[in-house]
Every structure is written in C-alpha cells, then in structure tokens.
Amino acid sequence: MKIRLLSQHDIRRTLTMEQAIELMKDAFVALTQGTIQVPVRTNITNVSGTMLYKPALMPSSSIFGLKAVSVFPGNADHKLPVTTGVMLINDSETGLPRALMDAQYLTALRTGAASGLATRLLANPETKVAALFGTGGQAACQLQAMLAVRSLQQVYFFSRKLANAEAFCHEQAELADSCKLVPASSRDVLSECGLITAATNSKTPLFADEEIATGVHINGIGSFRPEMAEVPSDTVCRAEVFVDHREAALHEAGDIVAPMKSGRLPSDFTPAELGEVLLGQRPGRTSEEQTTFFKSVGNAVQDIVCAAEILSIAERESLGQIVDI
Amino acid sequence: MKIRLLSQHDIRRTLTMEQAIELMKDAFVALTQGTIQVPVRTNITNVSGTMLYKPALMPSSSIFGLKAVSVFPGNADHKLPVTTGVMLINDSETGLPRALMDAQYLTALRTGAASGLATRLLANPETKVAALFGTGGQAACQLQAMLAVRSLQQVYFFSRKLANAEAFCHEQAELADSCKLVPASSRDVLSECGLITAATNSKTPLFADEEIATGVHINGIGSFRPEMAEVPSDTVCRAEVFVDHREAALHEAGDIVAPMKSGRLPSDFTPAELGEVLLGQRPGRTSEEQTTFFKSVGNAVQDIVCAAEILSIAERESLGQIVDI
Asked: CATH code at A31?
C-alpha cells in the first residue's frame, strides 16, 4: 500500500490563495445546499489536551478526509506548537488511503480563502485601506486573502504587543508587493479602513463601534466559541451579518451568541449564509454605507475542497513523498 | 513536524504473538474496568463503500489512536483490497502526531492475540488437536495464537473451497514448526479437536453441536454483526460463554444475539468478560468436560495497546521511515 505525504512546504507549492478563494465558492454552496456529509466531530480529552477528529465526505470531490487536530495549551511552556493538525485522505471510489497532509497550513489557507471570498462579495470595491487584528498563525493567509481581492495601498496591523505587529510587517513586506504594511499603535486609523479582518483569540471586542468607518466590511474568524468576542455587539446589531454555516455560527460564534443571549438580536435571527449569496437567494451588500460582517467558525467542507485540489495538483506534478505503508 | 511511518513489514519486526497476547491482558482488564475512552465510531458511507473512523485513548498508554478502516465491497472486482486500514497516532502528552501505521496486520495480530489469551485461559491444557475455520486475512494470526499457547500436534483447516485450505496449509507449514497442518475435507475430525477457532464471514453455523468434542474450547471472531453466525445456538446455549466486551457482544455478535432474540438465552444473559476472569471476578473453565466459547467482536482498546507497544519498539530500534509532514 502506498501513500503520498504532503508537508506544509509541498502544499505551498500547490494551491495559490486565488485558487483557494475560487474553491470556497464550491464549499459554501455545498454547505448551503447540504450536499456534504459532515458527521459530528469526535473529541477526546485527557489532562494535557484535546484531540479533535473531523471526518467529511463531499460527493462531488474524489476524497474522504479526516482532519485530526490537537490542542494542548501546556505545549507553549515547552516551545512546542499548541495546535497541530494532519489530514488523512482516502479515495472515495476505492476507500484506499491516498495521502496524509499537514493540516496546519491547509487550515490557515482555507480560513484565509473564506475571508477572501467574503471580502470579494461584500467589501466596497474601491477599498484601499484595511486593518488586520492578530499576528498569529492565521494572519499571513488573511493578509494574502485581502490582497488577492482588493487593490489595497495600506494595511494596518494590530497586535497586543506592538513589537509583534512590527515583526509581522517586516516578515510579510516582500509578499505584500506595493501595499504598505503598517504596525498600528492607535485605533484612530480604523476610521480610514474600508476593510477589517479580526483573527484573534480575544474574549472582549477589539474596537468600539464608533471607531470604525461608514461602509466598512468586517471579517471575523476568531470568536469560534460562545465565550469569545472580537466585534462589539453595537456593530453586530446594526450590520448586515453573513455567516459560513448558520447552524454552527448561531451556536458557536461568541460575536453572534452574546447579542442573541442578551436579547439585542432576535431569537429568530437569520443571518445570510455566504452560499445563499452565491446562489442569489439572499442579497449581499446593498449600499456603500452599509456595514457588512462576515462571521466564520470554519467547516470541514472548506478543508475537503482544498485538500482534494491540493492532492490533484500534487499527483499531477509529483509533489511530496510516496511511501509504503 | 516529523512522523514515523510503519508498514506491515515494519510492524512484523516489532511485536511477537506472545507479546501481543500479554498485552491483551491490559486491554481486557481496561475494557472491564472502563479505564479507556472509546467514543462511538463515526461511519461515512457513499455509493461505493464505507469509511469507519475509530478513535480511542487509553490513559495508561502514551498515545491517542485513530483507526481509519475502509470497506469497499466492489474492490474485489478490480483486484483491490475490500478492506484497508491505517492508524494515526498522536502523543498523549503533547498531542503531536507521532506515527502512521498500517492497521491491517495490526488488526489481524490483535484479533489473533485475543483468541490466544482466551485459549490460554479457557482451553483444556492438554489440548493437542485443533481446528480453524476460515483461511482469509485473519487465519494466519489465529493459527499463530493457537500455537503460541498450546502444544498442538495437529490443526485441521476448513474453508469453503478445499483448495484454499490446501494452499493455506502449504503457506503456513514452515511457521507451524512440528505441528501438522491438515486441510479438512470432512467435519468428522472435529470430534478429535479440543480447540476450534472460527474466523469466517458465515451467516449460518459452521458445524452442528453434535459434531464437536466434549470439553472443547471455541473462539469465535467472525459473527460481528447480528445477522452473522458461526457457532450453532445449541452449542452457545449449553456452553459457558465469555466475551471481550459485554455491551458490544450482546448488541453485535450474531452468535449471541440470535439465541437471545429467539428466547433460548434469557433476556438478562450475562456472559463473563475476559477482563472479569483476569481480575478473578468470574470463574474461567470449571471442569474438563465443560464447553467454553469465547466470542469477540473486537475493540479499539486492543488496537491501542498493541500500537503503543509497536511504536515504542519501533522508536527504540529505529524501525520504519521518519518523514517530514
């Protein structure tokens, strides 16, 4: 039995952000249409951490995929990654194992691509200035996604420590091409930004409603648990809200769960899914002045569509290692 | 990130059957004591087959393990394996991925080892002649297990086609050492056998109750679904029945489910678990004349204890391939 191994390095040689954004259309339409099998994920927890096993099958792709993610908070004390992930791929026609790939970059890529698609669909087309909160593992792909869909001249970076934002801007400068990357020391600059992406583990809002510009589009990819928060409820309640998957967002996303719990959003709150916008079932942005908010908690279908294409490219171009198992 | 890959060939160089049988003690005690986390397995089915994902954590071992098994019946038409399996191992202290190993041989090994342990505990010590039904993927390890725990002089092999039994005896002759392997053309020889192992996909009993010897011990590892059957109900009802895991056996094992459904076994039928015998909570064989029946449907704890030891030996002896992922 042979299996293809794809490292982060190999995966970076396959899908571009532009391609990943295109694939997110398939993913979000499949999510809305329910044409994907995503069983409830399985968690096993011990004293040190949690393993999450997330299997999925998308009939239109050629693979079964299982993402195995570890979350071990104490690793940080030993300079080991708190989160790791690998994805096991089996062929959907024969069941044979086909690949094992790193899932950490895959996750960052598909999460960035989701924001990229939402930004393409919802942000004002003339947006030139953006802001990114968070300089962790998701930030680079979030930046790439913003750059892929809007002609940005300047992006401000917010981190809890200014030094982190400075280091990140320095690291990413080359990839950003002619766009200027600026570590932000004050939230005053938010009034210039037509696009804000939040990619943090924050439990309190990252800015105040009055600090953001008219007509801004916000992507929120943190706040994937009810107790987390990135965007102020004042903003969420006056914005047009879009989500990746309604059922998940209404249960897991703190930015939405909190104002629903407090009664500021109605109990029958029904934000549009991005798939509904793609299918023309719900409108996207309807005016230049509107505030739009895309809230994503992430879904296995995003992994599957990307993994299928990554594997297809890797097979065509003989990338990765083929090993006996 | 680095991960160790262990092929079937590598695994064969680690655990012996004797070692695997010893490990089954830990496995069955853990099952009885409930000191293992085995979430419900996840199945995903499409038009071609089913993927089964079985995660488990045994606190006393150092690993999380996920076994991903494919069952694609149509593969037989294309000379591809109907069933394949791999096991993904993560470290229980850090969550980091540690290994991916072939799980097909692992499954056969741990299934054989379970029969070996049951035979050691339950078969008459002086047993010299045995029978094995089935010459499929499980047969070699079942034979090894019988040979490991009893000084057998002769083993009869039953297959639906005599030619298969002949081929199997030929293949295994060298490993069987001084024990004679005999393809069986008639069930008359069962009256000589103090030990019978059934490893088939049969849906009807493989022999009649009156064909077997007084004091025989039977291992049944087929009949893992309610509609399957290997051992006649007459035998099951008069035998002392032992199981790997009561809850699973009473729901899944056709050999037990059928006589319970027909009322021949009481609705509160409570066969002993092998773990209870090991812990001295229930007796094993109580007389030479007794018929004992060990019914196993298999459990993730058996995989985990073997995988942990396989990995430990492989790390110590630098077996397998270490690759970047």
From this structure: 3.30.1780.10
